[in-house]
Specification:
It contains eight helices and two strands, in the order ββαααααααα. By secondary structure, the protein is mostly helical. InterPro entries: VanZ-like.
Length: about 170
């Protein structure tokens, strides 16, 4: 399926991932929120958004062979700089900047901690890219990691700043 001229591999795997993730979220959110003291509603939203993100990124694509991890890692500084330059290069990278924003915002709102959102924004894209090296038809990329992490960190910092401002000036 194409969304804004960007290929999004929606398959029965995606549907299964959404179903399993949704059920797991509904089973886990109350105990997790009770144990951690996090906001109940935002904990549920966080889990649902996280499971949706994973379902959309872990479905197989059209290629038969998965890439290797070494294909994803920049081996030279010039390759890393090229990945950084790609961030603003096309619509797909622009969408990659905002793809983690909803789940990161929900995590910051659930936990009331900016640091949790920042850690999620830095770790989740790495996990996604590494797992994609094992999924046929998916491509791991340094540019995708950088775009996801940048957007997620910005979302966490802005959400944290808004929360601090609201606490400082209630009403």
């Amino acid at each position: 399926m194409y969304l804004f001229d960007v290929h999004v591999p929606l398959t029965w795997w995606t549907g299964l991932g959404l179903l399993v993730g949704g059920v797991a979220s509904l089973l886990l959110w109350r105990p997790l929120a009770a144990r951690t003291g996090w906001h109940h509603g935002w904990t549920l939203v966080s889990l649902l958004l996280l499971s949706s993100t994973l379902a959309l990124t872990f479905g197989p694509g059209a290629e038969l062979r998965p890439p290797t991890l070494t294909q994803c890692l920049p081996t030279r500084a010039s390759k890393l700089l090229r990945s950084l330059a790609q961030l603003a290069g096309d619509l797909e990278n622009s969408l990659n900047i905002i793809v983690l924003a909803p789940v990161v915002i929900a995590v910051v709102l659930a936990t009331r901690r900016t640091a949790y959102g920042v850690w999620l924004a830095l770790l989740l894209p790495g996990v996604i890219e590494v797992v994609q090296t094992q999924i046929a038809g998916r491509v791991c990329s340094t540019a995708d990691y950088l775009a996801n992490a940048l957007g997620g960190v910005l979302a966490a910092v802005v959400t944290g700043a808004v929360l601090r401002r609201r606490r400082a000036f209630p009403g």
